[in-house]
Amino acid sequence: MIFEHQEIVVGSSLEAVLYAYSNEYPLFFESPAPPFRFDYLNPGTDLSCLKIPRAAESLTTFGSEKKIGLGKELLWERLLFIMSLVGRLPLSDMCNSIRHDDSKIICFNEHSKIAEVRYEKMYNFKQDDKNNKLLCRDWIAFNSGGKHDIDLIETSDDFVNQIWFYQSDRICGNTKVKDACAVSVVDKELVDDFEFSQTMARFKVVKEMKDRGMKGLLSSYGPNGNPKHYDFKTSVISRSIVSNAPVKCCDQNGAPVDVLSLNKMVQQLDKSSQRYWKILRHL
User: Fold this and answer.
1) Which of 105, 112, 119, 47 is nearest to 76 (CA)?
2) In the predicted model, what is the mean pLDDT of the chain?
3) Residues of the chain with pLDDT under 70
4) Could you read off the pLDDT of 173-214 as tens digits, one per residue?
């Protein structure tokens, strides 16, 4: 297939999707890059223009309650859904790799070339490859001691900077058991060291919980009547590693392109969504 467009957007970050949606440009990407599960918009952000109801939420922490807006992943999914309906995702998620040539990109799947896209101008949203920091997300299962009310623990360290507690995906139904995701910022040179491994992240999660007075299941009572508790039992589910660099936009020559910030693009969604009203009115 050969496509010809005046302007195209390359990338699958929320910034790229928002820019393509707002300007009615076709979007091409190698692999979907949804926002992190626990990335939220600013509290009070109104997305009723996308038929997403406003939901006031707050997280339980050891300080004051933390107000959050809607999840960025929800916004990302809704924008891609609308763009697919109006034909602005020509390849959907069928492309596995993209080769950049002069005034065109060539898209491939696992087996062969599937499309050639010719353009006059390209907006390429990507992260800085020279960035030396990585974002490690360690997903940890609680086999014992996972029932509590805490949603978030924040620390002052780069390693296990945040601990997000969420309703376990391992158990079917509406369970009270919570698993955890530990978020760390680690140098590229240190990411394979044992001190920054999944095991150490798991140990630190338990330590941070104990330091704040959290306890495992009640086991018995001592001679003096004081309660005794089982220790937390945890195991590693998985680890994901991504660049910690911000997403930037450049043209086909690699020159930076000034685009609105993520928050400003979100604020202008009401105006840009008017072009998609024939779709939105049915949602």
Assistant:
1) 47
2) 92
3) 56
4) 889 999 999 999 999 999 999 999 999 999 999 999 999 999
Segments making up each domain of the chain, as ranges: 2-128+246-280, 133-242
| Residue at token pair 């369970």 | 175
CATH number, span 2-128+246-280: 3.50.50
